[in-house]
Each structure stands twice: as structure tokens, then as C-alpha cells.
Amino acid sequence: MNPLRNCVNARASPGSDALYDLNTVTSVQGPLHRRPGAVLNRQGFPHQGRMWAKKLVHETKIRIGTWTIGSLTGKLMELIDNMIHRKLNILCIKETKWVGEKAKEIDSLGFKLRYSDRSRTRNGVCVTIDKSLKDNVIKINMIGDRIIVLKIVVDNKIVNIISAYAPQVGLNMSSK
């Protein structure tokens, strides 16, 4: 039996298999790291036990959605249920088919609906705002029956929301 047959020639290259990396300094007490937080737990895992700082100021998040509804008639509660379910603050709606340019308060839930339409058969835009933002509205500008511009204050910043409806079916090229 040859005793050298079971020996493994292990070699270490300086760049890959070194015991300590190039950023490690050795002293009489052992290896010293440049980042003292890296060896606090004595296992050398730098991320274990790290404390993350929490933000002192929380940003307000608003959720905005859009929906081509087909007709708003008879779908008002479905619209509100979808806003609550999807946690939307503002919902822009197209194809309302409600004639007029009015604002409507939905009594018990605190939502405000503002719509504009000239024809009962097509077009119409609407914006629905929940109770947390309805008092922050600066201006709502309705441009015809296809464009609605909402100017609102969120975290002391003015945000412009533009909702446009561009139907493609049955129109000539100049209208598109």
C-alpha cells in the first residue's frame, strides 16, 4: 500500500482561495477588519443583526385607476365597490353616457363624482374621488366631453391628472 496515494495535493491561489481578503489586516490578536460591524457576531456575517433606520416622514401614496365603463347608468354602486376593493383614491371613467356637466356627492360613503357629457349615445368622461382627497381638489377642468383635467394637492404638492377618451370606431380622421 502506497501512503502517498491517498494524499490530496491542496493548493491555494492568492486571489481565490485565500483565508482572508485583501482588506483584512492581521494583528497579534488575530484578523482585524476595516468594517468593525462585520465581525460583531463572531461569525463574520456582515448582514446579520443589522438595524435598518425607519423613515421619519411617511409619503402619502395615491392610487389612480381608469375604467372604460360603457355606461354609468345603474353601475354607480359597482363603481364604488371596485374603488374600495382596489383601494383606489381616484378613478377616471370613460364612456359614461350621462348628459350634462355636474358634480354628484355619494352620500354615505364620502365619494365625489364629477362628470361631463354632451351626448347620451357616446363619449363622456368622469372622475371619482374618495373622501380622503375630495377636499384637496383645487380645480376640475372639463374640455368637451372627452377630456377632464384634475388639479389636486397631495403632500403639499400640486398634482395634475389628465384623463382623455379617444374613441376610434365610427369617426373620421379629423376627429381621431
UniProtKB/TrEMBL annotation:
Q: Which GO terms describe its molecular function?
A: double-stranded DNA 3'-5' DNA exonuclease activity
GO terms for biological process, alphabetical:
DNA repair
Q: Which Gene3D superfamilies match?
A: Endonuclease/exonuclease/phosphatase (3.60.10.10)
Q: Which InterPro entries does the entry link to?
A: Endo/exonu/phosph_ase_sf, ExoIII-like
| Superkingdom of source | Eukaryota
Q: Which residues cross the membrane?
A: none
The molecule here is called Uncharacterized protein
Which species expresses this protein natively? Dendrobium nobile
